[in-house]
Amino acid sequence: MPQSQLFAPVTIPTRSGEGLKLRNRVVLPPMCQYSVEKRDGVPTAWHLAHLGSMAHGGYSLVITEATAVVAAGRISDRDTGLWNEEQVEAWKPITQYIRSQGAVPGVQLAHAGAKASTYGWLKDLADAGKVGSIGDEEGGWETFTSSPSELYGLKPATQMSTAQIKDSVQDWAQGAKRADAAGFDLVQIHAAHGYLVHQFLSPLSNKRTDEYGGSFENRTRYLREIIEAVAAVWPENKALGIRFSGEDWVEEGWVIADTIQLAKELYGFGVRHFDLSSAGIGKFYGPSGPGYQVPLAQAVKEALPEDAFVTAVGVITEPAQAGQIVGTGQADGVCIGRAALGDPQWPNRAAQALGAEMAAPAQYWRGHW
Ligand SMILES: Cc1cc2nc3c(=O)[nH]c(=O)nc-3n(C[C@H](O)[C@H](O)[C@H](O)COP(=O)(O)O)c2cc1C
């Protein structure tokens, strides 16, 4: 398959059968911007400009940063949210703009669990020594998790009761309902990077002894319940996705065989987009370097029915590299994250480099094209 297969359209199946059409296989992965100045979860002009530039940069699927389903689930107090109507209204012009540029708006719904209530990762804050948990005097809030753990190096979190878990499942469903109202066409459940769902999945962080801990079936119960609750409210003509940490890369941790088993189960609930990242809990001993997570995507892709849209992510920076991953069938699409922060026109340039038809906006034709 030629490298320009990267720019062949693809359809993510939906339960209605219609499918969600993507103009190419280059996806913008979620990237926190920590830019909600008013600390109210409402996206701002920055989010419109940032995500909008990626839409006219040629991405086919533009996924928002981790967007909290409840205020307590924010990584930082500058995260976006979808727990109220004001946030829905503020997302609407953003999804409309993304769509107007030929891209599909997707949202990553998230809950940070024990990794909430931090300063986030902005250079000016880090330079000022503001890293880790926000102090109580600065508005830090109570955090919640599967079971308390010191693995995060943050302030202690409270173990969720069964009733709190049940309520939390409904928070995800309400978030999905609002995501629909806000105009998103794809919802991605954040089950990666050591955040709340992953805190339940991984045996490193989940030491519960009730029906939400212990066996694989129990540790995955919270996520299965979330997916079922989201699927019940998410329109059938829209796409359901998940982001996994395919491996913890830690001894005794969550491994790719677990991911494959769970991915198959979630496929049964209607999930069709699977994005394979890794790590986030405990001391990391895994690989790194160009394309280091691609084998995780390939393993999941090989285990799922052909119509699943499986994406690879992580240090994919070169057009030929991206083209090869898709062209050789290791993944159905690629996420280009940090490279896009340096060049939001990455997909348009890659198309040119690989000899594919370009989607560069007409307004920019006197630039490089
Ligand atoms: C600034 C920044 C913010 C990020 N925020 C998120 C996020 O909100 N949710 C998430 O799942 N991953 C997040 N990530 C991880 C990226 O989605 C991506 O997986 C990672 O950067 C590796 O891809 P890359 O090498 O193409 O950048 C973030 C990464 C960066 C650099």
Automatic annotation (TrEMBL):
Keywords: Flavoprotein, FMN, NADP, Oxidoreductase. Residues 6-354 form the NADH:flavin oxidoreductase/NADH oxidase N-terminal domain. SUPFAM superfamilies: FMN-linked oxidoreductases. The keyword NADP applies. It comes from the Bacteria. Its cofactor is FMN. It holds the Pfam family Oxidored_FMN. This is Flavin oxidoreductase. It comes from Glutamicibacter arilaitensis (strain DSM 16368 / CIP 108037 / IAM 15318 / JCM 13566 / NCIMB 14258 / Re117).
